[in-house]
Amino acid sequence: MAKPKIKYICSNCGYDSVRWLGKCPECDSWSSFVEEVIENNPRKITASTGKSSYKKISEIEATEEARIKTEIREFDRVLGGGLIPGSVILLAGDPGIGKSTLVMQAASRIKEKVLYVTGEESLQQIKLRASRLKVKSDTFYVAAETGLRNIIAAIEDLKPKVVIVDSIQTVYNSELENSPGTVTQIRECTAILMADAKKKNYSVIIIGHVTKEGAIAGPKILEHIVDAVLQFEGESKQSFRILRGLKNRFGSTNEIGIFEMHDDGLTEVKNPSELFINERDRNTSGSVVTSSIEGTRPLLIEVQALVTSSNFGNPQRVATGFDFRRLSILLAVLEKRGGYRLSANNVFLNMAGGVKIDEPAVDLAVCCSIASSLLDRVADSATVVIGEVGLGGEIRSVGHIEKRIQEAEKLGFRRIIIPQNNIKSVKHNSGIKVVPVESLTEAVTLILK
Ligand SMILES: Nc1ncnc2c1ncn2[C@@H]1O[C@H](COP(=O)(O)OP(=O)(O)OP(=O)(O)O)[C@@H](O)[C@H]1O
Ligand SMILES: [Mg+2]
To answer: I want to staple 235 with a disulfide (CB 3.0 to 4.6 A). Which of 277, 288, 308, 354 is the partner?
Structure first.
């Protein structure tokens, strides 16, 4: 028998090489090459039958009602309204973040037949979790299985509407010579599951582990073939978790779902703004509330800054939950346009609650919080600050102004500082005072007590 050939595949992007490489020439990741066996007798592709089939688009029947609801509002929101039959969703997240908990809770609430395939835990362990989560469902089936053929056979037999695979790294196709978790296995198994799901019209949720660097393990190719990629993230020390859409063929990727982890599982956070701002200290300098739009809904977030004098030549700049480069730009604008001396100070910036914000509309709040900490003057805690800051220190308009104002008003804020150019589109301002500003210094003067 011929000796099997070996090749090396980048576990990040799928690039292959005959030699082991320290750095991938394709995606620049380090130590990502893993050894894979090349099959001596590659299987022939038999999917093509030689017959063509096409239809008029008007003759195809598909309705939004066909979506299968997970009955977890935050999960459905990120999915774009529920699971589309025949679609494949990749759910990725750090170890122990709560992926299995989330899918189990969804599985128990889905009104259709669900098959939960686990390769990581025994049926008894699954039952223990189910009891802790108080799962009661007659349509929820569990299989402790790792062989792809057996999984497909179980699906054939049970005919579920939703299949959950926990996790794709444990599933293997015995027709391949590679061990489970290798790039080839992950790619092949996903492709076979996907083809089966499209044929039998069931939805698949695939759980995937993330690598040390936080990327979804397995080839990037997996991200291309699946219909949606969801990332479950959170700080290990905090109880809340964020479900984020990284890709979605059937919905917006800006939507986020917010959950809180308790002993008896995950609960949806109905009013996230309250969660993010209720712990703030109203009498400390450096704290300013802003509004960011996540998907379609506004979120009020506390921006915290701490400015201290640096005893060393190189002052420190640390940003948590905010783009570091953006912080550097805003510091330069504050220095040049506002006259705030920051070059000899350490600046620490934090989006309270561990959220990540990449919206320019929070620029002005970042600048105000830095100025507040630098001058050690408390910012008005009943005011929300919104606006993008230009390099000239001018305040630029932002989108969804009405939604942001309404959210601030709903949470009892009395004043909101917005860009002058946005004032035209403000329709109502009953319970909250809307103050337009044109420049950075104007906003800082208004907010500091
Ligand atoms: N008995 C318990 N009481 C309270 N919380 C628990 C309990 N057991 C587990 N948890 C919480 O659930 C989390 C683990 O959840 P889960 O197993 O769903 O994570 P996972 O993302 O599937 O992990 P893995 O990557 O290991 O599969 C723990 O980090 C912990 O926060
Ligand atoms: Mg798990």
So the answer is: 354
What residues are in contact with ligand 1 under a 6 Å CB criterion? 93, 95-101, 120, 132, 261, 263
H or E element, residue 198: helix 183-200
Same domain, 307 and 422: yes
> In this structure, are 30 and 141 located in the same domain?
no
Domain end call among 251, 270, 289: 270
What ranges make up the beta strands (E) of 156-286? 162-166, 203-209, 228-234, 240-248, 256-262, 265-268
pLDDT digits 0-9 by tens, 134-167: 988 899 999 999 999 999 999 999 999 999 999 8
Q: Do 103 and 158 have their domain in common? A: yes
State pLDDT tens for residues 90-125: 998 888 889 999 999 999 999 999 999 999 899 999
Q: Which among 72, 91, 94, 101 is the best mutation to test ligand 1's pocket, defined by most ligand atoms within 8 Å of the CB?
A: 101
Whether residue 43 is predicted with pLDDT greater than 70 in this model: the reply is no
| φ and ψ at residue 47, rounded to 5 degrees | -65, -30
Instruction: Kindly give the number of the ligand 1 atom that is closest to the alpha carbon of 96.
Output: 23
Same domain, 156 and 192: yes
